Amino acid sequence: MDFDGLSARTASVADRTASAAARAPEPATIARVGLGAMVFAAGVHKLLDPLSWSAYVVPWLAPLLVVSPVTFMLVNGVLEVGFGAAIVADRYTAFASAVAAVSLSATCLYLAVIFVVEGGLFGDVLARDIGLAGLAWAVLVESLRRPTRTP
Predict the structure, then answer these.
(1) C-alpha separations of 80 from 5, 33, 119 in Å
(2) So what's the pLDDT on residue 150?
(3) HEC-encoded secondary structure of 103-117
(4) In angstroms, rounded to a whole number, what is the distance separating the alpha carbons of residues 51 and 35?
(5) How far is CA 109 from CA 2, 12, 104, 141, 142, in A?
(6) Residue 120: half-sphere exposure toward Cβ, Cα within 13 Å
(7) Pick from 70, 121, 79: which is nearest to 103 by CA?
(8) pLDDT of residue 108 exceeding 60
(9) What CA–CA distance (Å, rounded) separates 47 from 7?
(10) pLDDT tens-digit profile of 50-104?
(11) What is the reported pLDDT for 147?
């Protein structure tokens, strides 16, 4: 086996990836755009299919909402489209990412309660949203560290 050739190819791949990474946007920018795109996409999907999203409102919670679960999702969809667009555009990022961080954290708390009370329901969504909440908090912290800009 030609280990010298493999070593050279590995070094070449490492050099090319290091070069590509040097030209890539800052990790904070990638995180911000990723979070904003996710919030925006979730909002659009809530506007297009609010009935699917209303499945996350368990029967014992629905009477506690001021509006129907579908209306609740439609309102959330509109807000998420706006906040997601603001995060992607890097405008009012601290405020929009704070809303996303608090919202995702509250969602995680809600999903954790549902997971325990309803015997494991929505565990997959809880696992995903914990990561997204962490991402939102990271974007918020980064936006607060930057010098203040005017939108």
Answers:
(1) 51, 14, 29
(2) 52
(3) HHHHHHHHHHHHHHH
(4) 24
(5) 54, 46, 9, 21, 24
(6) 0
(7) 79
(8) yes
(9) 52
(10) 999 999 999 999 999 999 999 999 999 999 999 999 999 999 999 999 999 999 9
(11) 82
